[in-house]
Design brief:
Blueprint lengths: L18 E6 L5 H17 L2 E6 L4 H13 L4 E4 L8 H9 L4 E4 L16 E5 L1 H16 L3 E7 L5 H14 L5 E8 L4 H14 L5 E4 L2 H13 L9 E6 L2 H8 L5 E4 L5 H12 L7 E4 L3 E2 L4 H4 L5
Parallel strand pairs: 1-2, 1-3, 3-4, 4-5, 5-11, 6-7, 6-8, 8-9, 9-10
Antiparallel strand pairs: 10-12
The protein binds beta-D-galactofuranose (GZL).
Beta-D-galactofuranose (GZL) binds next to helix 1, strand 5 and strand 9.
Length: 306
Amino acid sequence: NSGGGCASPPKLAKKDHYKVGFSQNASNNPWRLAETASIKEEASKRGDTLVYTDAANSGDKQVSDVQSMIAQKVDVILLAPITEKALIPAVLQAKAACIPVILIDRDVDHTLASPNKDYVTFIGSDFVQQGKRVADWMIQATGGKAKIIELEGTTGASPAILRKKGFDDEVKSQSGMQILASQDGDFNRDTGRKVMATLLQAHPDVTVVYAHNDEMAIGAIAALKAAGKHPGKDVIVASIDGEKDALNAIINGEEGTTVQSSPFFGPVSFQTIDQYAGGTKLADWIVVKDMQFTKDNAKENLPNSF
Ligand code: GZL
């Protein structure tokens, strides 16, 4: 565009094939690998060109990754922003360069950038509902009596902020349920294990562990066993994502439930690109639907897990 500004959000001209940028924030767990595989598979199915970058869990690198896509003049950017604030400059720079941005998987801070204005839309799960569903299951499983340790996802990431809100608000209504401690485990298995081991020292009376993702739950299970506890018996573990290792932990009785957070963004992302190019008015938030897994349905759902 000749710098004369552009529509807000920038338009996308309909073409047979697109040059699509996908800015991934990390590849440090099965969820992220499944998301990347889904996007790459859909791009190649459609014969679109994919400019893929991996920010290795760094907000600064992800900003420069998006800047490189802008320089390569991609038609549209799929962005999974590591945190709600770090990628704001990149979103606004893409807009100034008249390149539409579609947020997938994680959202940005709506006081700093708006859907259908600075970026096209956010495609992602309802993280508040995910936290609430875990809490509701926990209330049933414990009869409303629990001493809880919460392992939080990456500080500042929308899934971490909202999964905390959904769970904590629901638990607040139960006088017999107390959150002993809540700490960042960065959505990472080993960090989750270490944080759990430390918190267990301070709170040996814990009866429930709520992890914002399965990776940290698996780490927590390892820490509990190392301390002589019996996950699934004296401590109930619950998390979110629906990865294979968590479904297997449910099948073997070490985990109670995991609420799915589908990583399969390929089909919906490219369908949204087509709709946007075709002039369809898109919602500010395209909600991804999620299942919940327990011992009743974990085994049958293993094949479509990740
Ligand atoms: C959720 C996604 C989260 C997953 C984690 O959409 O952003 O990031 O729940 C992943 O496993 O690290």
